């Protein structure tokens, strides 16, 4: 899984979005980079997957983001006996009207936590595919539109944990970014104890923006300029994954689109109306690591996918043009 270890520093912020980050940090101490990645995913119109051990605050992160944005929060707790209809909803016969009525499932939320997604069967995991890609749910031949904005943050435990099912490549590809939260530093963990000594800060967290602001931000992301050389840079990085000797299955064109859109969102969050190469280089591991498959020899040798992705990115020459203004 992609780790938060990059030399890049992004200290500038869009002031509206910084208000959201500061609000979330009342709950998530010392995790500004993680919050930034969640917001990149949200503004790019995608969904993210967090793989980490239990107890590092994955659920609190999603709840804090939903509250800060004034969005409707829903949670799906994935278990081995969960059915697809438990996710999407079910049609129930109403004796009074003598007709079937659709009862929406928990996927009908603006910010949805798909908790421990790899603890359920592949059949139930597949119930998310249409929702993630098309923002619709089909039940009994009827298609129902999901709310707008619609954002899924899925969590999974490492596969070494007992009782987990690996996510198929088709489903992994639906997630824009994949990353981990990680343990807090010593001082941050002491701060957490102090903040929660008389209750949890999530209980008093208030919205600082509204859901309509997210839609406005997404339109702003669409207007972020990406110079031609940087568009080629994105595709060169993705193409390089298909030629690396330790990669059996390279990233698809969807990865190019994901990296392009994520870089636009990254620039917007930083208060810029143009993309720079560091936006692309910073996000590449989070976009690509879950979209490639290493060769059997590389896996048996203990090669980490993150190292291979960083090697790929480092081998592609950075464009001389620094993403200048239009």
CATH uppermost class of the largest domain = Alpha Beta
Can you write the helix and strand succession as a string? Answer: HHEHEHEEEHHEEEHEHHHEHHEHH
Percent in helix: 40-55%
Number of E-state strands: 11
Bin the strand percentage: 5-15%
Biggest sheet strand order reads 2-5-8-1-9
Radius of gyration: 20 Å
What kind of sheet is the major sheet?
5 strands, parallel
Low-confidence stretches: none
Shape: globular
Separation of the first and last Cα atoms: 36 Å
Structure notes:
With 326 residues, this protein is an alpha/beta fold. The chain has two domains: 221 residues, Rossmann fold, CATH 3.40.50.300; 97 residues, Magnesium chelatase subunit I, C-Terminal domain (Helicase, Ruva Protein, domain 3), CATH 1.10.8.80. The strands form four sheets. It has a five-stranded parallel sheet. A two-stranded antiparallel ribbon has the order 3-4. Strands 6-7 form a two-stranded antiparallel sheet. Helix 11 crosses helix 12. The two termini are 36 Å apart.
Topology of this protein?
Blueprint: H1 15-24, H2 32-43, E1 48-51, H3 58-69, E2 73-77, H4 84-88, E3 89-94, E4 99-104, E5 111-115, H5 122-125, H6 129-134, E6 136-139, E7 142-145, E8 151-156, H7 169-172, E9 177-179, H8 186-195, H9 211-222, H10 228-241, E10 247-249, H11 253-269, H12 277-288, E11 293-294, H13 296-300, H14 305-315
Parallel strand pairs: 1-8, 1-9, 2-5, 5-8
Antiparallel strand pairs: 3-4, 6-7, 10-11
Helix pairs in contact: 1-2, 1-3, 2-11, 9-11, 10-11, 10-12, 11-12, 12-14
